[in-house]
Amino acid sequence: MVLPTYEEAANIERVVEAVRAKLPDGGQVLIVDDSSPDGTGEIAGRLANDHAGVHFLSRPRKEGLGPAYLAGFHHALAGGAGLIVEMDSDFSHEPAYLPRLLDAAERADVVIGSRYVPGGGVSEWGALRRGISRGGSAYARLALGLQVRDLTGGFKCFRREVLEAIDLDSVRSRGYAFQVEMTYRAIELGFDVVEVPIVFRDRQEGSSKMSRSIVLEAIWRVPLLRLGR
């Protein structure tokens, strides 16, 4: 489990506890922190010291979601992980769904915890945020010619072979376009992608990392993925 963090001091300890309770025996948690000024890294370091199954990777500066995940993926692959899961660190993704993703990974190469398949959904969002999210996924589907319903979803499980086949060092997306790019590349390489339903809920502690620059990056970068094929 790769957990990227930036200013998640209010959440990270509880999230790690909840994730560890749902991981199978031998499952490992890797916290990747971009030098959060709120003390997240100090908490992560303590958790890594206290628990054999928790690891901490500290990065020197904030570079975005994509680079943090890529650093975590490299670390997980080097450690011999067979399944690599990514998840938000703020309880927007409920750890209780983790077994559902891992079960589906027995028959698929990439599993997406999806808000937009039957049984999935979003809670505690206003109409504007719902519209932006649905519109973003629809835009990506149209631009890339894909059938995946939740292309911007960030609760995923990758089989090791997928991340090894993708040239991780060539992935350039930094914000939520990273989620689209990773799924698109997996499909282009012929891997099986399935969606399982989850209900996404808004964070209760801390602040959202969504910004105008993240939205703009997704708008211009997503079509380039297809052109660059």
Number of helices: 8
The level of helicity is 40-55%
Low-confidence stretches: none
What would you give as the CATH superfamily? Spore Coat Polysaccharide Biosynthesis Protein SpsA, Chain A
Q: Which oligomeric form is depicted?
A: single chain
Gyration radius, rounded? 16 Å
Assess the beta-strand content as a share of residues.
Answer: 15-25%
The arrangement of helices and strands along the chain is: EHEHEHEHEEHEHHEEH
For the largest beta-sheet, the strand count, sense and barrel status come to:
4 strands, mixed
The geometry reads as globular
Instruction: Work out the number of β strands.
Output: 9
CATH class bucket? Alpha Beta
The name CATH uses for the topology is Spore Coat Polysaccharide Biosynthesis Protein SpsA, Chain A
Strand sequence of the main sheet, in spatial order?
Answer: 4-7-5-8
The CATH architecture classification is Alpha-Beta Complex
**How many domains make up the 3D coordinates?**
1
N-to-C CA distance = 30 Å
pLDDT averaged over residues: 90
**Structural class designation:** alpha/beta
How would you describe what is shown here?
There is one protein chain. With 229 residues, the protein is an alpha/beta fold. It has a single domain (2-227), classed as Alpha-Beta Complex (Spore Coat Polysaccharide Biosynthesis Protein SpsA, Chain A). The chain has 8 helices and 9 strands. It has helices at residues 12-22, 40-50, 65-78, 98-104, 127-144, 160-165, 177-188, 212-227, and strands spanning 2-5, 29-33, 54-58, 83-86, 110-114, 121-123, 156-159, 193-197, 199-201. The strands form 3 sheets. It has a 4-stranded mixed sheet, sandwiched between helices. A 3-stranded parallel sheet has the order 1-2-3, with helices on both faces. A two-stranded parallel ribbon has the order 6-9. Strand 1, helix 1 (12-22) and strand 2 form a beta-alpha-beta unit. Helix 5 runs parallel beside helix 8. The chain starts with a strand and ends with a helix. The mean pLDDT is 90.
